[in-house]
User: Fold 3-hydroxyisobutyrate dehydrogenase from Rozella allomycis.
Amino acid sequence: MKTIGFIGIGKMGLPMVQNLIKNGRKVVIFDTNTEVLKKMSSNPNCATVSNPKNVLDYTNELITMLPENSHVKSVYFGKHGLFESKNLADSLLIDCSTVQPQLALEIYNEFQKKDASTVDAPVSGGVKGAEAGSLTFMVGCDETKAKQIDPILKLMGKTIVYCGKHGHGLVAKLCNNMLLGTLMAGTSEALLLGQRLGLDPKLLTKIINISSGRNWCSELYNPVPGVQDQVPSSNGYSGGFSTKLMKKDLSLAHDASGGNVELPISSKVLEIYKEVLEMGNKAEDKDFSYVFQYLKNKKK
Assistant:
């Protein structure tokens, strides 16, 4: 039974690790949350270590899934980080975190000096996709490495798209999420207008979904409570993709542009999500469709 390393056992990382085990792999894991490590250590196919570097004592294949740029930098370059390992030669390090494309390039350039292969492979599908093993991976390299990468990623997902160059997986992810945030804000605004003018939101949703305004948010992830079952808006906006993470991804997209591209529409959406986070009521942890409630309660 082959062993895979995994660093970052959070909302996304935990179900990804569980799918690796379910699909016949042993795992060696690290996380700063010792309670998670303690819980996972009861599984006979899961071993834990005390720092990132030690993961590579047990395997030359490693996945990271971390929240922010700072966490990725710490794991890869910090004290007891992966760069300190003496076992980097011929290793494959796959970072599924959503961070700056430039950071992926920095990791690639530095680890190449130690004969280690690194790729950025951010995901789409959210927690539900991670639990179902149906994630989409956007991989920052060409398909020449597919024979090495595909068998690992297919244990956790269904779709793998090779984006050509290092960092381009992250470019694709940030462009997608920038559009997603914009679509959710626009869909929420349209549904709110219809509701305020006396139109039932279920009826308006039906009309939108057979018309030119149809989009993923209106069809599969409606932001109005009660319009669709089993979506966050009908469950107190719990679960799903948090407003905090949407704001983070919008910020990353704008930072990545480097001022070379004007982004007036998503700039406004970014400002809206910043204001959503200031609403209180733990808005930062609520699903990003909570922007509907922000618009609904916004004063003139």
Q: What stands out?
A: The chain has two domains: 3-165, 170-297.
